[in-house]
Amino acid sequence: MLYGANKYPIILIHGFLGWGKEELGDFNYWGGKNNIEQYLRDKGYEVYSVSLGPISSSYDCAVETFYQIKGGQLDYGQAHSEKYSIVQKPEGMVYPGLYPEWSADNPVHILGYSFGGVTSRRLLHLLTNTIPKDSTGAPEESLLLREKLSGWVSSITTMSAPHNGATLSNIVVDLVPFTDNLLPLADLISSKYYDFNLKQWEITKKEDESIVEYLSRLRDHPAWETKNSVAWDSSVQGAMALNNELTINPNVYYFSFSTVASIRDEKTGYHKPADFINRANYPLGWVIGRTKVDMGNGEKTDETWFKNDGTVNTISMIRPFTGQNGPEPLKHFIAGKPIKKGVWNFMGEYSTDHKGFVGIFINDQARIDEMMSRFESHAQLLYSLP
Hints:
CATH class: Alpha Beta
CATH superfamily: Alpha/Beta hydrolase fold, catalytic domain
Number of helices: 12
CATH topology: Rossmann fold
Radius of gyration: 20 Å
Low-confidence stretches: 175-196
Helix content: 25-40%
Shape: globular
Distance between the termini: 19 Å
Mean pLDDT: 87
Strand order of the largest sheet: 2-1-5-6-7-11-10
């Protein structure tokens, strides 16, 4: 039997283009050909994973996370739905709840990987603030948006998260502008094997709709212009806007992990992909390692942003530091030393590419064992928190 100071469930939140259990058969988001969630359960930890819109905004993902954990009819809120022209309560999106007893008396540990780290912070913000549905201050129907639910989260752990944005997001949008909003295109390639979970946008072709009618409706769809998407929230400017709002909570434990798969070229000052980087990430890492982007405040990112893991800038993973609030408190984690709330405890930098940190495209048994041990050690740390 597993003993600890607490036994709060650990909630795994995936990132951009992520998926839930069994959506891609035996290939897991958390572990690739292996299964991190099941491994931790076998070790005695209570663990759940959610399945969110893989290209949706941090707000939509946070709301989806809440209802998947707590249960009930998905409700994005009236104000948000009207602002972005989405369906407030998508039909059929009713969840039994992975952990219905979730409350201040039964809090959870949240572990977000990649964009899931941003979703984690957004969820905590929604939990601890009320969101009125109109200018009169009238409350929303949703429990999440109507009430201040303080104490529901014990800790937040982020891994390879773009807290300050990813310059890759800016680069891709600048090179191929239509990718600023993948939402309308994404639904075209959704299938029974991979669901983009975009029912709130009503993008799916209707049964009685001709292809001409569908394409005409698609052409005029507001999803093309929205900032309610991962493209905006993961950009340097979008992340800065989030950091103005999502401030660190003094009553929650924070942990962060960073990853790197690039090497500095001493001759040029640029970063080039490391030899061990996954081939799919090689061109991305090369571009990130030499490109500066506009931060939206009259400045550009500097050479400290070149270091990356093939997807996200390493400097962006440690803690939020852009925005009007400035850098959030930080300390380097030292085993055996007291852990404080309201401070980012940095767990270290790992030499692996972005996908490799959660086991995707890893076949080497030594690296697999190292990954499992890392997750188990962190779960043990979370259960040791008072």
